[in-house]
Write a structure and sequence with these properties.
- It is a single chain.
- With 236 residues, this protein is an alpha/beta fold.
- Helix content is 39%, strand content 23%.
- The protein has two domains: 119 residues, Rossmann fold (3-Layer(aba) Sandwich); 104 residues, Orthogonal Bundle (Arc Repressor Mutant, subunit A).
- The chain has eight helices and 13 strands.
- The strands form three sheets. The chain has a five-stranded parallel beta sheet, sandwiched between helices.
- Helix 4 links the parallel strand 4 and strand 5.
- It is globular and about 50 Å long.
């Protein structure tokens, strides 16, 4: 798999590339958001490590541009560690967020984790036939890793697909934020509550006519989220 590293600090970018190459990944380097967008047109990229603060086109705006066309995982790097900055990055479309300075081994672990999800939750061809789920016009096809609302296709990132898949398989069941994080992210939910909330908001913006009055994903205050809809079916 190929990984694009985008950081205006060339020493940091080169160091990350060495660690990734030692793990067997192909690497491409970019030093601002514009170069990252160009690299995506020239090579098959499976994951992006994107710095936030860069000249010309910063990481946040580059991520927004990428998300209009692609659902590949994006891990953001930033010298800022405030929750508001993390939430902003996730809200722009990032899948994960790592604060500088970081442990290279932790970054590699996050890369591997995101690529596993990318493979299993919609980025690459599926390896098993699990079924098609429909709730009141919302359809999720886990065989093809696609989703649609009233016949109109919607583009989801692997993590968004994973959350929707979890909820739509059990319409009416309430999942706590911790359970959603642990089952979709595959790791401890410590500190993951805001991450789930941001991803739920992004899903609603894509599938709901009015995200402020959601038809499908309902919040159960103090408990978690559920998929609404009595007209539900599952086909295999």
């Amino acid at each position: 798999m190929n990984i694009l590293i985008c950081d205006d600090d060339k020493e940091i970018a080169a160091a990350i590339a060495v660690y990734l190459q030692n793990e067997g990944y192909g690497t491409f380097l970019a030093y601002d958001g514009s170069q990252a967008l160009s690299a995506l047109e020239e090579a098959e990229i499976h994951l992006i490590i994107m710095d936030v603060m860069m000249p010309k086109l910063d990481g946040l705006r580059a991520t927004m541009d990428i998300r209009r066309e692609r659902n590949i995982p994006i891990i953001m790097l930033s010298a800022k560690s405030e929750d508001t900055d993390k939430i902003m990055g996730l809200g722009m479309g990032a899948d994960d967020y790592v604060s500088k300075p970081f442990n290279p081994l932790e970054l590699i672990a996050r890369v591997k984790s995101q690529l596993r999800r990318y493979t299993s939750l919609g980025g690459l061809p599926p390896v098993e036939n699990v079924g098609v789920y429909t709730v009141d016009g919302l359809t999720l096809d886990n065989n093809r890793k696609t989703a649609s609302v009233d016949g109109e296709d919607i583009r989801l990132t692997p993590l968004e697909f994973g959350i929707l898949h979890l909820l739509i398989r059990s319409p009416g069941r309430v999942f706590s934020i911790d359970e959603i994080y642990e089952r979709v992210w595959g790791e401890s939910s410590a500190g993951g509550g805001s991450t789930v909330t941001v991803h739920i908001r992004r899903i609603r913006e894509k599938i709901e006519i009015n995200p402020r009055e959601p038809k499908y994903i309902k919040v159960v205050w103090g408990v978690g989220y559920k998929m609404e809809g009595l007209d539900s079916a599952k086909a295999r």
